[in-house]
Automatic annotation (TrEMBL):
<protein>
    <submittedName>
        <fullName>Uncharacterized protein</fullName>
    </submittedName>
</protein>
<dbReference type="InterPro" id="IPR012337">
    <property type="entry name" value="RNaseH-like_sf"/>
</dbReference>
<dbReference type="GO" id="GO:0030014">
    <property type="term" value="C:CCR4-NOT complex"/>
</dbReference>
<dbReference type="GO" id="GO:0004535">
    <property type="term" value="F:poly(A)-specific ribonuclease activity"/>
</dbReference>
<dbReference type="GO" id="GO:0003676">
    <property type="term" value="F:nucleic acid binding"/>
</dbReference>
<dbReference type="InterPro" id="IPR036397">
    <property type="entry name" value="RNaseH_sf"/>
</dbReference>
<dbReference type="InterPro" id="IPR039637">
    <property type="entry name" value="CNOT7/CNOT8/Pop2"/>
</dbReference>
């Protein structure tokens, strides 16, 4: 809106050395910010046809996850500062030198600034993240957080695999039961929702452009920005 100065957005980078401290802030933010947007970066689709989602998720490892907690006025938490904040988790699970990957996806992520060597050295172990996330109050909570993604079939599947630290359920019913248990039946996919909105189509960036929504942090194809 004209005349309104929005606070700058800072992405809080999460590594193994500051994971505990940052989760304390996430728990505080979750008391008032009940909408959770998330985005995940992974090594791309490695099996064809592309509709073999379960096999692709099972074969690949997470690279980045980003969370942005929002209140009912559309604001991110600021913790009493002049900035508003979101979080980017950098994982050590994926080894760019040895693990299965889609080379085009990896080159794209490199071009957007992801440092795979730093992830290996300083990144978060996914088991540590899962343990803290399950205690964060964001999952299976009677306050019913709303979770938001965009074109998020792979994002949701990777999140479920990450949280349970084991292979995904064999069938769709088992998978959906898992999603409903952890996300409390409040999951919204913007890509699906745009099908019912005249004039909105395409990917995340195109939809944002048509709604005059600007990026406030990071670059495209980084979890830190897409959320």
């Amino acid at each position: 809106m004209d005349g309104v100065s929005l606070p700058s957005t800072m992405v809080r980078q999460m590594w193994k050395h500051n994971l505990l401290k940052e989760f304390d802030l996430i728990r505080i933010a979750g008391m008032t910010h009940r909408m959770v947007a998330f985005d995940i970066e992974f090594p791309g689709v490695v099996f064809s046809p592309v509709n073999i989602d379960k096999d692709n998720v099972g074969a690949t490892k997470i690279i980045q996850l980003r969370l942005a907690l929002c209140d009912d006025k559309g604001s991110l938490p600021n913790f009493g500062t002049k900035y508003q904040y979101a979080w980017e988790f950098n994982f050590r699970d994926f080894d760019v030198y040895n693990d299965i990957q889609n080379m085009e996806s990896i080159e794209l992520l490199k071009s957007q600034g992801i440092n795979f060597d730093k992830n290996l050295k300083e990144g978060i172990d996914s088991a540590d993240f899962a343990a803290l996330m399950l205690k964060s109050g964001l999952l299976g909570n009677h306050f019913a957080f709303a979770w938001v993604t965009c074109h998020g079939a792979y994002d949701v599947a990777h999140l479920m695999k990450l949280l349970i630290q084991q292979p995904l359920p064999y069938n769709l019913m088992g998978f959906m039961n898992l999603v409903q248990c952890l996300l409390v039946k409040r999951l919204f996919d913007l890509k699906h929702m745009t099908k019912f909105c005249d004039g909105l189509y395409g990917g995340l960036q195109m939809g944002a452009n048509r709604l005059w929504v600007e990026r406030v942090a990071g670059k495209s194809h980084q979890a830190s920005s897409d959320t």
